[in-house]
Amino acid sequence: MSKATVLASLVSTSVLSLGLAGPAQAVSAVDYAALGDSYSSGVGASGQSGSCLRSTNAYGPLWAAQNSPASFQFLACSGATTDDVRNTQIPALNSGADLISITIGGNDAGFASTLITCWTTTDANCAAKVNTGKAYVANTLPGRLDATYAAIKAKAPGARVVVLSYPLIYASPATGCALSTAKQVAINDGARVLDEKIKERAQAAGFVYSEVRDDFSGHEICSPDPYLNGVTLIPAQNSYHPNNKGYANGYLPAFRGSAG
């Protein structure tokens, strides 16, 4: 299977946290729901199943397993956009939810198609595609995020909502990678712009924003101990998603620190 074919499959399946030590702490009165896209459903980790590619090794199920909330709704789905969250996930959300986590926005901004372009064409084309995504993030995504956050607040007005960021994909820059330095820098720049806009709109909604980049620092693709998958052949959708370590040591600590 060619790299282009592998990356093409990302369009329909991808976007684009507590260590395992220590005793579980019961949160018996908390009703928790994990919303969002593939970075919340657990794509990239082992144990994915169903059409939404949900994994018990995603940060949401890991947190629930260790904290024993009163209930846990795992509604995140691979490939989800803001429209999917509003039209499919929020209608299924328990209106009495006390705690909600979400990653969303990467699919809206065309993250997967950007990666395909950067892998299969020139540095100039990669930069142009990233710039197109940045323009979308600046001009269109804010309204979509605002509508999504408002819908969450309307459905579960008493919930503490934690909006998690996306990690940077590469070190600054990584050496010995298949992609050129120019492409790595462009992709990371696009991710930073996306995270900054997500942070801005989450805080405007009165939600908690949790940054995962520090937790992934030193563990990007091409690092000695990566928390992210590079381009994978089987299964192809794992490409550019956190691996088991990424969810357990990256996303889970970031969520735990913000869950309250």
Automatic annotation (TrEMBL):
SUPFAM superfamilies: SGNH hydrolase. The keyword Repeat does not apply. Residues 34-248 form the SGNH hydrolase-type esterase domain. InterPro entries: SEST-like, SGNH_hydro, SGNH_hydro_sf. Residues 1-26 form the signal peptide. Disulfide bonds join C52-C77, C118-C126, C177-C222. One of its GO terms (biological process) is triglyceride catabolic process. The keyword Signal applies. Keywords: Disulfide bond, Hydrolase, Signal. It comes from the Bacteria. Pfam families: Lipase_GDSL_2. GO terms for molecular function: triacylglycerol lipase activity. The active site is at S38, H241. CDD domains: SEST_like. This is GDSL-like Lipase/Acylhydrolase family protein. The lineage of its organism: Bacteria, Bacillati, Actinomycetota, Actinomycetes, Micromonosporales.
